[in-house]
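Supplementary Text 2. Reproducibility record for the structural model of the 115-residue chain.

All settings were left at their defaults, and a single model was retained for analysis rather than an ensemble. We include the record here because the model underlies the residue-level annotations in Supplementary Table 4.
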Amino acid sequence: MRFVGVWSSEIGYNGVGRQAMAIVTTVSADMRAEGYVLNGPPTAHVYDPSVGASTLPFHAEIDGDVLTVKPENAKITYAAKLNLQADGITFVSVRPDGKLATVVLKPIWRLANGG
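Retained model, structure tokens:
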């Protein structure tokens, strides 16, 4: 349940890229999650400026404090590392060329705090 909520960036990917959000709508007893990854419009420093803003539904698996997301019909995989001490998620996208883009997502709304 720790992941269920709405999470948003204050600073874009790698400090200069597009803004991001994750909306985790459900987590099942077998540690599977569902929700959406939202990416804002491109900035001058994005991987592919021809790709506009997007909303990508996902099914994910949770292992400890890591949520691994592969959105439907997307070429990018995301790993979200929950850090309750910092009250945020470090969200890492793995691009098709293997390069990483990182953004910190802060909670806007959460179903539950803690364990």
